[in-house]
Each structure stands twice: as C-alpha cells, then as structure tokens.
Write a structure and sequence with these properties.
Elements lengths: L16 E5 L4 H11 L7 E6 L2 H14 L4 E6 L7 H6 L17
Parallel strand pairs: 1-2, 2-3
Helix pairs in contact: 1-2
C-alpha cells in the first residue's frame, strides 16, 4: 500500500534530484526554471522533452538563475514508449502538474 505524503513539505535546502517531463516549453519549462532557482548547490535536474532545442533553452535559463546545480537534458518521445521500457522504469509513469500558492518552504 502506498504511503500518504499529504502535508509533507519539500525541503529544498537539501541536495535535490528532480526530473521534469515536457521541460522544453510551457508549464514544464516554467516549473523547471522556478523550482531549480531554489535548489541547493550540487542538486541535479533532469529535463526530458521531444524538442532538443527547447531543452537547451530551458537548460540555459536554469543555469542563468542557478549556476551551482547540474542540468542534464535528454530529447525523448515517451508517447509511444513500449511496455518493456516502462517496466524497466518501474511501472506506469504518472504525469501531473500542480501549483502551490505561497511557494515552497
């Protein structure tokens, strides 16, 4: 049974590992940049999207606001990912997006 994390705050003062899909534009891009702004030095952000040029643009913006983190990009299309690949990743992917008023603490 899955554990509940309702009410748990993300501590961005710790080294973080963050993966964002759809990071080349739109909400994914903004979330990547704004969240990475708050990461501690040494944190790692992995950006996935179909557009290699969009990913490089996002990567550049992230490093402009926080040059003390590592940003890894990979141009991938997960829309036709095989069951075999998904199995290797540990099951079905869950894509969601959210926003918290007041920011992270």
């Amino acid at each position: 049974m899955a554990s509940s994390t309702s009410g748990t705050k993300i501590d961005l003062d710790q080294v973080a590992y963050f993966l964002i899909t759809g990071a080349s534009r739109g909400i994914g891009q903004r979330m990547a940049i704004e969240t990475a702004r708050r990461f501690r030095a040494g944190s790692i952000v992995v950006l996935l999207a179909r557009s290699a040029s969009g990913l490089e643009s996002t990567r550049a913006e992230i490093l402009e606001v926080n040059p003390h983190i590592t940003v890894v990009t990979s141009s991938v299309d997960l829309s036709n990912a095989s069951r075999e690949l998904l199995g290797d990743l540990g099951g079905e992917p869950a894509h969601n997006c959210g926003y918290e008023f007041g920011g992270f603490e």
